[in-house]
Amino acid sequence: MHTPCGAYLRWPRAETPTRFIIMGLHEDLNEATKLAVREKHLSRDNAYILSSVAADLNITQLVDGNKGVHMSIPTAVFLPVSAK
Fold first, then answer.
1. Exposure check for the chain: N or C terminus, fewer CB within 10 A?
2. pLDDT tens, residue by residue, 12-39
3. Is-contact 75 54, C-beta < 8 A?
4. Domain limits for position 65
């Protein structure tokens, strides 16, 4: 899936006025979680720091051997310090 700015997305995403929601799907629940956490295009270490401090992780689905995890992060986390 391509975004309006041409960036490529591997997984579905959603955005509300207050949260970004990123999904990961895989037959292994741990791998689905990694995919959701790393989809924000951060380094591995920064992704795990961010998710441990600011993200909520939830199971999205357990269907037909596939498992889904979605990570929800407040949009305010990504605002410049002067905008907060």
1. C
2. 788 899 998 988 889 999 998 888 887 7
3. no
4. 19-77
When divided into structural domains, the chain yields a total of 1
What ranges in 2-84 are assigned the alpha helix state H? 29-38, 44-54
Whether the Cβ atoms of residue 26 and residue 67 lie closer than 8 Å to each other: yes
Question: Does residue 67 lie within any of the structural domains?
Answer: yes
Max Cα–Cα distance, the chain, nearest Å: 46
- How confident is the model over 56-76, as pLDDT tens digits? 999 988 878 888 999 999 988
Within 13 Å and on the Cβ side, how many CA atoms surround 46?
7
pTM: 0.69
Is 2 inside a domain boundary? no
